[in-house]
Amino acid sequence: MSQAMLSKNIVLVHGAFADGSSWSKVVPLLLAKGYKVTAVSNPLTSFQDDVAATKRAIAAQDGPVTLVGHSYGGVIITEAGNDPKVASLVYVAAFAPDAGQSIVDISKPFPPPPGPQKAAPIGDGFLLLSPQGVEEDFAQDLSKEEKALMVAGQPQTSGAIFVAQPTQAAWHTKPSWYVVATNDRMIAPEHEASMAKQLNATTISLPSSHVVMLSHPKEVAQLIEDAASGKR
Hints:
By secondary structure, the chain is of the alpha/beta class. It has one domain: Rossmann fold (3-Layer(aba) Sandwich). It is built from nine helices and nine strands. The protein has helices at residues 26-32, 47-59, 73-80, 103-107, 131-138, 144-153, 189-198, 212-215, 217-229, and strands at residues 9-13, 36-40, 65-70, 86-92, 119-123, 126-129, 157-158, 176-181, 202-206. The strands form two sheets. The chain has a six-stranded parallel beta sheet with strand order 2-1-3-4-8-9, sandwiched between helices. Strands 5-6-7 form a three-stranded antiparallel beta sheet. Residues 10-222 form the AB hydrolase-1 domain.
């Protein structure tokens, strides 16, 4: 590697309507560079449960951690990233609220993207994104086969996570990197750019759907490497 490996441990945190397979194309690229990679399986039952799962993954690492979050996973890493082991944060088309702010709160100033409107309740406060939502708004630039796998394997997501609020925002004290997906239909791209600016993050923009780590894995893996090596 051209840069010193400051964090050999990388913990990847998926978002809503998704699971650890979100990172299936990024993981091999990072492993090939000698990193220890952990993809957290969030239960998506509550914000507290998801933060706890991520904290357990951080605790299992043997040194400094680069903590990566996609979508709602950005809210999780904003809270869990306060762990002293976490050296850097990477937001991948992700929400980055401040303390006391929810996804709903920070999204209000921006045009509502079409994707979240295709999430429907299925009982007990849980939601599923419709097949049309997955195919047209969540992963519109993936293959037909990849979209079908996402629809079949989509986990149930608690609606309560969208109003959950971090108690302390790690990005105030930890260096941050950000991937803006300019064709995102789940988070307004101008909202992503605004969050990246607020974080003073080292930022790249890619012409991608919401699942930028699946449509542009090499570029996302490179940014994660940059964060792990402290390259700004």
